[in-house]
Please model this.
Amino acid sequence: MLFVKAFDKSRKYRVGFDLCDDYSQISFAEAGKEVQTFEPESGSGSYNIPTLLYYIPGTDTWHTGRDAAQYSSHTEGTLITHLIEEAAADNTVTVGERALDPVKLLTLFVRSCLEKLAYVVPTQEIGVLMFTLRTLDQRNIEMMEKVMEDLPVPRERIFIEEHDSSFYHYMLEQDPMLRDRGALLCEYKGYDRMQLSRLSFNRRTTPVVSSVRSTEYGSLPYTSPLDMDMSFLRILQQEMAKESFSSAHLIGEGFGREWMKDSIQLLCRNCRVFQGDNLYSKGAAISASYKADPPQIAEEYFFLSESKLKSNIGLQAIRNGEEGYFPLLDAGCNWYEAQHTEDFILEGTNELQLIMMPLSGGRASRYTIRLDELPVREDRMTRIRLSLSLKTAGQLQVRIRDLGFGEIFPASGLRWEKGISL
Model:
């Protein structure tokens, strides 16, 4: 896990921002205090912020969130939906005769949300801001990098994670009895697919390795409440046949008490059941707290998600006169944060051999990179720069540059680039 360097304790708030295409939510916590969720309208009991922008022509005015939804119902203008989808795809958005950058529009929405939050959490007192998105692929990463560079919170205090990670962090802060046998998360918004995510813990390892396995189901039938109840019941029976869990968490407005009868009874007979909408934003706020001030439990558990690097990567090298393993990338870091650059001096070879050691155990694999056309020089008179990064969790990008050796052997300008499947 990467932690904020030299965290300023005077910036006391940790903020979690669940950014979704339909609606978003924000939770926050002061150091050592319980997480709260921001209500856009105080006392309303609703945490949802519609992820919308509305432009009123002739006024050069943009409205966001609930204001956008309200103005669109009685004022002539342009309603912009699917902000994340458009920004990730880099689709130009047309408003009137203007072609607008979708990332700038998404940034406008996020900045507006933070301005509203500032009435409760002053922006200058945000120590860590954690965004959580449903998934993190290359397009979402690039999109969020642009957004995060243009926010009132300094970039070095802003992070991103996926929903699975927020679920994991949320559960770490719950009573241990609620995660002893794992936890089930059921997400259903009522108009699209239902997703069930199972968080499990391998207590045979130290630290305890945690992972989330998700299964998507189709939308429940709308023919009758009974049909919905029976369909959900069958889904739960399938999940329970695999293994048990200590708690179940129902999120999304699709779960209504008017149709959940037999299905909810089955859940309650087998585990503790909770229902709400703000689990992801709360989990992101907890994750932000762990970035700022990691508690002991963060050392006892290790989360291995699809976005994590699953192997330690290094090479054999001589350091301080002794040959040994030289680490470059550590397993467990997020692939989009994994990068390392190091200079090496070659001795008696024009090859590098990377060593990949899987976290799950098993034999290490080796990958040899031959530096073809490297100029012939005296031993220890060739310095190279090795840079590693990841394009995805399973795709390592290796870049090597010949630096020569000062004025004695000028750099050749040669570069090598390799992609390695992990």
